[in-house]
Amino acid sequence: MTGDVALITGSSRGIGKATAQAMAAQGAKVVISSRKAEACDATAAEMNDQFGEGTAIAVPANISSKDELQALVDAARAAFGKITVLVCNAASNPYYGPNLGISDDQFRKILDNNILSNHWLISMVAPEMMERGSGAITIISSIGGLKGSPIIGAYCVSKAADMQLARNYAVELGPRGVRVNCIAPGLIGTDMARALWENPDTLKISTANACLKRIGEPHEIAGAAVFLSSKAGAFTTGQTIVCDGGSTISGGA
């Protein structure tokens, strides 16, 4: 990925950070972004120590704010001159329980942060990609978007929508050389999913029924993101790559 500039949301920890590390290892410049400035600064400093000064910059932004996302895109361009790769990783899930119990505010937050913010970011970076005739956009979805759940139903709705967002944008942007895909992780040992993998019942179901008999780690999703964002994935667009240890094919959660 030498010559690429990757903007990755939610990249101060978890899947986003692992993706930034993997892309930097392949030669890309990376823009680290999440809500908290201190976490972004620490992650960018770690990247620069590991891969060389100038590899990463930190630009905090709240994905719920269109203005902050535009400032993030502007800062990335100011630092590196372009954005060739976008990874929409940041997401929210403020509610665990049946859909009948979710409040309107909670539902709206999930839809705004997990769908609308991705649409905003794509609309901000796609024009320059189309002008160059190349670019790669990846949305981190979830296997929740492929099935129902009595615990994270609204989140699953948003992740299903992300898959369709990728398909629609793949059709729209493909003629101009821009690829758009999704990754659908299974249960991964991240802070965001802590409420699931710390629950013994959920963990038991996820590991017992999955082919690999374990949950995943953030770095195990990063490889798919590198593939989709690099020349290795040059003929792949509009797809959802499932990375779940075999959970969905064997009835796991």
What characteristics describe this protein?
alpha/beta; 14% strand; seven-stranded parallel beta sheet; 253 residues
Structure, explained:
- This protein is 48% helix and 14% strand.
- With 253 residues, it is an alpha/beta fold.
- It has one domain: Rossmann fold (3-Layer(aba) Sandwich), CATH 3.40.50.720.
- A seven-stranded parallel beta sheet has the order 3-2-1-4-5-6-7, with helices on both faces.
- Helix 3 packs parallel to helix 4 and helix 4 (104-132) runs parallel beside helix 5.
- The two termini are 34 Å apart.
- The model has no long low-confidence stretch (mean pLDDT 93).
CATH superfamily: NAD(P)-binding Rossmann-like Domain
Q: State the order of secondary-structure elements, H for helix, E for strand.
A: EHEHEHEHEHEHHHEH
Q: How many distinct helices? A: 9
Q: From the 3D coordinates, which CATH architecture would you assign?
A: 3-Layer(aba) Sandwich
Task: Give the domain tally.
Answer: 1
CATH class: Alpha Beta
User: Main β-sheet: number of strands, strand sense, barrel status?
Assistant: 7 strands, parallel
Tell the overall outline.
Answer: globular
Report the count of strand segments.
Answer: 7
Structural class: alpha/beta
Proportion of residues in helical segments: 40-55%
Task: Give the end-to-end Cα distance, rounded to a whole number of Å.
Answer: 34 Å
